[in-house]
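Figure 3 (text version): structure tokens given as input.
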């Protein structure tokens, strides 16, 4: 089985509302890309083993999102799809 994030692969938008003001959250990419300068070049599943979330086991992709209206930041778990 192979799982892919529908947001990362352009199948679907993030579709999340800000819990503070209700505006649309803006996807800033996967959270693990913000760990350090080399994170975007490392294996995604390998990074999932050390990021502190059950995302590898649950087939989720953790996205960092921001609100342009109130500057709220949050992590959003996106369910991956089996392709």
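Below: residues designed for each position.
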């Amino acid at each position: 089985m192979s799982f892919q994030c529908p947001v990362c692969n352009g199948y679907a938008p993030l579709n999340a509302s800000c819990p503070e003001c209700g505006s649309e959250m803006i996807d800033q990419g996967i959270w693990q890309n913000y760990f350090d300068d080399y994170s975007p070049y490392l294996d995604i599943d390998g990074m999932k083993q050390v990021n502190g979330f059950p995302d590898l086991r649950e087939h989720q992709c953790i996205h960092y999102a921001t609100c342009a209206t109130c500057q709220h930041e949050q992590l959003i778990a996106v369910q991956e799809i089996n392709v």
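DSSP finds two helices and five strands in the chain.
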